[in-house]
Amino acid sequence: MQVVDGKPHVRPCRSIPSDGNETNEWIASIGALYEQLTTLKPLAGSSVLTPVRHRGEPRIAATLRAEAPWMGAAIDRIADQAAMSLWTGRPWLSLRPMLLVGPPGAGKTHLARRLGALSGCGDAVLSFAGVNSNAELAGNPRGFRHQQPCFPAMAMLRTNTANPVVIIDEVEKACTGDMGDPVATLLGMLERSTAARYFDGCLAAEIDLSHVNWVLTANRIDALPAPLLSRVQVVEVSGPGPEHAEAVLATLWREVARDLGLPPAALPRLEATAETMLLRLFRNTRSVRRLRRAIETLVAVSVRHVPRTLN
């Protein structure tokens, strides 16, 4: 680890061996394509680990709790590990691999993505639903037509951090096929001792994945192998109840605005009748996904009648 401008950095990959294309004007070499993995990358998250004065818990946990109070069990784990990171002199987001287990629409993936956004680590989501090879996670080694480093390495490139939040969605739905077992590949990435020197077939070099923050989601765990369960902290979560309707609506309203690249105030004004309809929809269905779709539809219909003024 090195300190640059007062912030901790690590170099994920020390060097990338030649693939023979360095002088080829038609084909970019692997070294050139993925050179950024050999540069220092920050370990992000220090600003959200400090305690909130009136609550005493890390800022990131307090924010998540306000947005998703029904996810208290998972947020408690995040708070404990954030406090431990500061206490041990590691001022960056460093979580033990976590498996969130709960019903569809409970907000598991949303919580994980907010963790990446709030911490500044960034996030990357890979769904295991229907996956029957390890290529999506392990990448494709040299010699393949579409050679590419492993998914966590690509997440580092996209987020420009050494500790992105990598989300494996619906991990229980992966299948073993002739092209490898994605869960078996995942095991080596979750174990920090082996992840620190993970050999990537595309880079033809070792890469340090030990700082990646892993969050797995599943609807059930009865079909998951014991070696996987032994490597993660299993946290059971439930979906939001009717009493959380206002909090869910406010959170999703901000999220829709953020995905559109706008501040929430730039969205069309939410009329009282429309708000009542949205709250009733959620209380009747308790589905975060259905409420989000309804908000997106409402915004789309509204902007047709209330054009946005551009400065």
Structure, described:
The chain contains twelve helices and ten strands. A hairpin with a 2-residue loop joins β1 and β2. Among the domains are: 143 residues, P-loop containing nucleotide triphosphate hydrolases (Rossmann fold), CATH 3.40.50; 64 residues, no CATH class. It has 311 residues and is α/β, with parallel strands linked by helices. The mean pLDDT is 89. α2 runs antiparallel to α3 and α10 crosses α12. The chain has a five-stranded parallel sheet with strand order 5-6-9-4-10, sandwiched between helices. A three-stranded antiparallel sheet has the order 1-2-3, with no helix packed on it. A two-stranded antiparallel sheet has the order 7-8. The chain is globular.
Question: Can I get a quick summary?
Answer:
This protein is α/β, with parallel strands linked by helices. Helix content is 38%, strand content 13%.
CATH homology group of one domain: P-loop containing nucleotide triphosphate hydrolases
Determine the fraction of residues in helical runs and give it as a percent range. Answer: 25-40%
Structural class comes to: alpha/beta
Biggest sheet architecture: 5 strands, parallel
Question: Which strand order spans the largest sheet, edge to edge or round the barrel?
Answer: 5-6-9-4-10
Distance between the termini: 45 Å
Q: Return the CATH class of one domain.
A: Alpha Beta
Count of individual beta strands: 10
Task: Please name the CATH architecture of one domain.
Answer: 3-Layer(aba) Sandwich
Helix-strand sequence: EEHEHHEHEHHEHHEEEHEHHH
